[in-house]
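Feature request, filed as a ticket because there's no other form

It would be nice if the structure record came with a short human-readable summary line next to the tokens. Right now we just get the raw output. Example of a typical job, pasted below so the devs can see what we mean:
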Amino acid sequence: MTAPPVNFAGTSDNTSDSGEDPGRQRKRGAELEQAIKDATIAELACGGYGNVTIESVAARAQTGKASIYRRWPTKQELVMDSLGCLLAGPLLSIDPPRLEDTVTTRDALLMLLRQVVEVMTGPGGEAMRSIMSESLRDPDFSTTFECDYFDPRKQVLVDLLERGVARGEVRPDAVTPLLPEIVAGTLTHRIVMRRQSISDEDLVELLDRFVMPAISPR
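Raw output as currently delivered:
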């Protein structure tokens, strides 16, 4: 939903939209932004992308609409930023240059898979389900979703593979964007699309029977 023009001149986080109770706004700054993002994810999980409105997010976050429009001019920007932040920690915190030398490529990949599953089996999975449904209906939305959400996260896995090449644990020709798509597709299909759980044993099997044989030096 495209937000209507909002005049923010002279307003602050201490004032809410016309007709709203200023006393509701108790949070400020980073705390308020996180509350808005959490509310957005909860709205996505409960009703899907089509039912998310700035009004519903504001009500759940206990803030005014102006505070949201000031930071995110459109619903799409709000949703993408909220979803990106939800998965930024676990997926983008695995920094290959900072991994200890004792952490093998297999260790790092298993760590990554476990963190992905942890997020996808929570509210993030429900939110992703609604976002993926919307991306099938809206080509422009799909492009934004791919560029802003999937591409940075696929790069994390590529970086791990490149680290493995330098360690002699991964073949150079195995460093391809296709592998992250295969792994992400497997987990997404199992957890998001089919709503089935995936155990740690499943992850180990996926890694040891399919991923590692495909990337290890022959």
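Something like this underneath would help us a lot:
Residues 1-23 have pLDDT under 50 and may be disordered.
The two ends are 52 Å apart (CA to CA).
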